[in-house]
Amino acid sequence: MSTVLESGAKHARSGALPAPWEGGHRTRLTMLVAVGVSYALDAVFLACFWWLGRIELSLPLLYVAAGLGHILLFTLAFRIGDARGQRDLLLTEWQMAAAIAVQLGAVLLAPWIKAYFLCIIFVVFAFGTLSLSVRRALLMWLGTCAMTALTLQWLPSQHTVPVSIPANAREAVLVGVAYASILLRCLLLNHYGTLLRTRLIQRQRKLTEEVEAVHRLASHDLLTGALNRHAMLPLLEGQIQLVQRGRQVCALALIDLDHFKRVNDNHGHLTGDQVLCRVVDTMAATLRPSDKLARYGGEEFLLLMPATTLAEAEVVLERVRAAVALQHWQDLVPGWPITLSAGITNVHPSDRLDDVLARADTSLYQAKNGGRNRCVSLPWQ
Ligand SMILES: Nc1nc2c(ncn2[C@@H]2O[C@H](COP(=O)(O)OP(=O)(O)OP(=O)(O)O)[C@@H](O)[C@H]2O)c(=O)[nH]1
């Protein structure tokens, strides 16, 4: 999970939106393959225009060289960037600038089919801006508009109208197919956008689950699933504050299993663990949802009972004690009774956390000394 968080922070620093796909080598490879295929497709169409006698052979050849140059240049740039800890995974703006420069160069070399290259700029732009922040996309847009205007300005006047009139039927078909291919790439782009959105949603869901799991790990005991001490103490503090503000009453119990060491010694630590889990399940089944049960130490538990008087807590603990004592233990510890002792107290407005815990501890001590398998309550006085 830390990788995800680090990558999020990295993109936040760079100003780029986090790339929703998995980062690293594979993403770049996919990107360069897509760029290569796009250049190759355009080169094929240019070769057809050459075949029809509309352009020089040098243009498709130059186009192929530009495609190869793009791939080589960015393969190298990624390596150097990695070594320097570059933040933008795909060097998006640089890749866009390079691809757009190639198209504008082609407009200058073959102005009669310039609409084709201008459409490709649209594809490059739509693709690149998928991973740019709004500010950077706007800057890219301004730069692209300016460079395109300058390039068109440079052309002889008969070429400034961005419409080409096909000379014959074959050329009309070729122009049609070329434009169909651009439209198809737009379609693929849309599909890609949908894919990214889906992955983003999946990643978000996974992240939420991971955060929830981390929260759960931080606040619950791994063995029994009860709250842990770390999570319980703030709850108790909160209840003490409510009592101090006169908003409610609250009771607390410290619960300890009797002679648990003997369970471990006679039946093994693993059985001891199973007993602990079953004790927690048994106790939880007898409690209200508002009661909070935490594993306070090895075989010691803290039970917080909000909106409960001492007298009510005594009833609750007697129910808990009886439930554990009467639980079916034969399968785990044959012939061995599992019982608990509990020390109960109530929270007084003048109490601090330590006072309440000390009182619960004293009453638990009394329960143990009184013969175990019993509950003793010690009110504030
Ligand atoms: N199986 C298991 N045992 C644990 C765990 N945590 C603590 N214990 C054991 O619990 C036992 C507690 O023993 P003691 O503190 O002597 O208390 P006791 O034997 O229950 O005796 P009294 O509390 O006086 O009734 C020790 O043997 C610990 O090793 C745990 O997670 N799993």
Describe this structure in words.
This protein is α/β, with parallel strands linked by helices and 381 residues long. The chain has two domains: 2-216, no CATH class; 227-377, Reverse transcriptase/Diguanylate cyclase domain (Alpha-Beta Plaits), CATH 3.30.70.270. Helix content is 65%, strand content 8%. It has helices at residues 2-14, 25-51, 58-84, 92-109, 114-128, 134-154, 169-219, 229-244, 260-267, 269-286, 310-326, 353-369, and strands spanning 227-228, 250-257, 292-295, 300-306, 340-346, 375-377. Strands 1-3-4-2-5-6 form a six-stranded mixed β-sheet, sandwiched between helices. Strand 3 and strand 4 (300-306) form a beta hairpin. The site of guanosine-5'-triphosphate (GTP) has 16 residues, from strand 2, helix 9 and helix 10.
Q: Tell me the Rg in angstroms.
A: 37 Å
**What proportion of the residues is helical, as a percent range?**
55-70%
Number of domains: 2
Given as residue ranges, the uncertain stretches (5+ residues, pLDDT < 50) are 1-22
**Shape, please?**
rod-shaped
Enzyme class: transferase
EC number: 2.7.7.65
Pfam families: GGDEF
Catalytic activity: 2 GTP = 3',3'-c-di-GMP + 2 diphosphate
